[in-house]
C-alpha cells in the first residue's frame, strides 16, 4: 500500500514538474524572443516566441491537472500530513497561489493579446508573465526548504502553531540555493528542449540561438547545485543519503548517490551535445541535440526525486527540531503525520489500485492517440 | 406579529456573524464562487456542442458544425481559467480549513481521488477535440465531444458527492418528520455509525441508553450506534481540540474496567477507529456516495451548468444582433433561436424536475434548512408567510409531502441549541434565516427568466426576429442566470451553517489555528478582485472590442 502511495505521488509529480519547468522557461524566453525580434528586425524570432507560447497554452492545463493529481494523492494517502502542511506552510503556499493568479492573468493577456494589444502594453504583460513565472517557484521552493528544515514555525501543540510569516517564507537557509537551482534548471531545460525541437524541424538558425545561453544555464545549475548541497550539510540525514555513497559525510540510511551520479551524467550529455553542435553545426548534431533534449527532460524529475527521496521516509527531513517542545503524546501524533509510512488505512483497497491503474492506462492511451492525431495526421478536407 | 424591516436586517446579520470564522468563510465563498462561475461553462458548453453536432449529423447543415466549433473554442478558453481558479480554490481549502481537509482526506477521499481521472479525461479529450477538430471524422468528433462532457459531468458528480456528504452525511436521521413533527427532544437528528467490537465491549449499554445513544445489532452481527448530533459534534470537537478520554464525554459511557485502560487515550484515536470501521462496513470507496442527497444534487448541479451555458450562448448572439449583426446576421439569428430554445427547455427541466427532486431530499433529510428556506418564523419579515400570505408554504407542503395541509417545520420551534453543548463554539444550531431571502430571490429571478424565455422563443419562432428590448434582456440573461445559480449555492452552503459537515464539524474545528488575520484576508480579497478587474478590462478593451 505504501509503495503504491509513493509511486503515484512520484508519477504525478514527475509529469507535473517537467511541464511546469517548461512553462517557467517559456514564460521567460517568449517575451525576450519577441523583444529581440522587434529590436533586431528578425520576424522568425517572433514566430518562434509564439510557437513556444502556443505549446505552453496547450499544456498549461495538463501541467495543472497533474499538480492537482499530486495534491489529491497526497490528501488521500497522507491526510494527516496535508493537515499539518496547511498549518505550517500557510504563507508559503499563499504566496505561490497569489503568483499563480498573477501568472494566469498575464498568460491570458499575453497569449490572447498577441498581435491584438498595443505593443507597449503587450510587452508589459510579457514582463509580468516572466516575473510571475519566476515568483511562483519562490513560494513552492520555500515550502520545499521548510520540508528540509522548518524555520519561523513554533509548534506548541496539535492546534497551537505560531508562524513568523517573513521568516517562514524567505528566511530558510535552503531557500535561495534551491530557488536559484530550480530557476536555472528550468531555463536550461527549456533552452535545450527548444533547441532540440528546432533542430528536428530544420530550423537551424533558431536552434543555434539557444545553444550559448543553454551552456551558461547548465554552468549556473551546477554552481547552484553545489551551493544547495553545501546548505544541506545541516540536515545530516538528507546530506548523508545524497553524498554518503560518494564518501562525503556519514553513512547513508538510504544510499541515493547513484541518482546524483546519474544527474551529473545527464548534465554531461547535455553539455557535450551542445558543445558538439556549436562546433560541428546544427545539422550534423541534430540527433545529439534531440538526445540532449531528452536528457534535459529526464534530469528534472531525477533531481526532484533525489531531493524528495533523500529524506525518505519523512516528509520533513529535520522534523525533530520542531517537535522537541511537545508532550510525548502530541509528539507521537505529529511524528505519525510526517511519516511516509503512515498511509491512510482507508486507501488499502485492491479496488482502488485497479481503478487507478486502469484509469491511468486508458488515459495515457488516449493522450498518445491525441499526440499522434495532432502531430502526424493530416487535416481532412472541409 | 412579524418583526419590522430593521429588526429583520439586524437579526439576519447578527445571526450570520455569530457562526464561527466569518472572515475565512467569506473569502472561501468568494474563491469557490469564482470557480463555480467558470465551471458551469465546463459542464454546459460541451453538452450544447454535442447537441449541435448531433443535429449536424442528421441535417448535414454546416451551420451546426460551425456553431459547435465556436462553442468548443469558448470551452477551451474557460477550461484553462477553470483549471487556474480550481488550483486557487483547492489551496484555499487546504490553507484555510486544514482540519477539514485532513478529515476529508481520511474518510471521504475517494470522490476527490476519482475526480482527478475525470479532470485528466477532460484535459486529454478537450485538447484532442480542439486541436484534432479538422483531422478526425464527424463521428469521432461527436464521440470526443461526448467524452468531454461526460468527463465534466463525472467530475461534477464526484465533487458533489463530497459536498452532499457535507450537507447530509451518510447515516443521517432527520430531526423532524411530517408525521411525527419535531423529534429534537428525542435526540434527533442522529448519525449512525458502526462500532468495532473492541470498542463496543468497552461501552456500558445502560450509560449509552441514558445518553440517548441507540445501539442496534444488525442481522450480520454488526453493532450500529445511532448518535444524537449533540454527541457526534461534541466528539469531533473534542478530537480536534486534543481531548483525552478521561476529559471526554466518552468517560461517562465506559465500563469501569475500560476506564482504567483507556483514560489517557486521545479521543481522536477512538473516533478514527469508529470511522474507519464504519467505512469498512460501507466500503471505503462507496461511503461518501451513500449521502442521501447525492444523486439529486448532481442532477441539479449539472442542470445549473447547462442552463447558465445556454443563456450565455443566447446572450452572446443577442449582443451581436444588438450591434447590428453585420454580415453574419442570419447566422446570429439562427444561433440565438437555437440557444434560446435550448435555454428555455433547460430552465424548465432544471426548475420543475431537478430542482424539485433536490428540494424533496432536503425537506426529508435536513428539515431545519427547509424551515429557514421557507422562512417559517415571525422573527423576520417572511416573504412566504407575511408577504405572499402563506401560499408558498402550502404549495411547498403539497410538493414535499403530497398534501396542502401537511405541516412544515417551524423555524421558531427548532431548539436553537439542538447541536450544542457547554463550551462549544456554536450556540445557534439553526441555519441562518438569510437563506430565505436568497432562496426567494433565486426562485423569483428563475421564474421571470423562464417566462421571458418562453415568450421570446415563441416570438422568435413565429416572426423570425426580436425587438431591441427583448434582445437587451437576453443579452443580460447570462448575468441573471449566473445570479440565480450563485444564489442557489448561497442557499446550499450558507444554509448548512453552523456546520461545515452537518452534525460533525463546524468552521471552528475545520479552521487553521495559525490562520491569517482579518487584514491579511482583506488584502488577499482585494488582490484577487484587482486581478479579476484587470483581466476583465484587458479582455474588454483589447480583445473583445
How many beta strands in the DSSP annotation of chain A? 2
CATH fold topology of chain A: Formate dehydrogenase/DMSO reductase fold
SSE ordering of chain B: HHHHHHEEEEHHEEHHHHHHHHHHHH
Q: How many structurally independent domains of chain B? A: 2
Number of helices of chain A: 14
Radius of gyration of chain A (CA) equals 22 Å
Oligomeric form:
heterodimer
Span of the ends, CA to CA of chain A: 52 Å
Task: Provide a compact summary of the structure.
Chain A has a single domain (2-348), classed as Formate dehydrogenase/DMSO reductase fold, CATH 1.20.1630.10. Chain A contains 14 helices and two strands; from the N terminus they run αααααββααααααααα.
What's the helix and strand layout?
The complex is a heterodimer of chains A (382) and B (545).
Chain A: H1 2-40, H2 43-77, H3 79-88, H4 90-112, H5 119-148, E1 153-157, E2 160-163, H6 165-170, H7 175-200, H8 204-231, H9 236-243, H10 257-280, H11 282-309, H12 320-323, H13 328-337, H14 350-376
Antiparallel strand pairs in A: 1-2
Helix pairs in contact in A: 1-2, 1-5, 1-7, 1-11, 2-3, 4-5, 5-7, 7-8, 7-11, 8-10, 10-11
Chain B: H1 5-18, H2 22-59, H3 62-96, H4 98-107, H5 109-131, H6 138-167, E1 172-173, E2 176-177, E3 181-182, E4 190-195, H7 197-202, H8 205-210, E5 214-217, E6 223-228, H9 229-240, H10 256-262, H11 267-282, H12 294-322, H13 329-365, H14 367-374, H15 383-387, H16 391-401, H17 434-463, H18 468-494, H19 507-510, H20 518-544
Antiparallel strand pairs in B: 1-4, 2-3, 4-6, 5-6
Helix pairs in contact in B: 2-3, 2-6, 2-12, 2-20, 3-4, 3-5, 5-6, 6-12, 9-11, 12-13, 12-18, 13-14, 13-17, 17-18
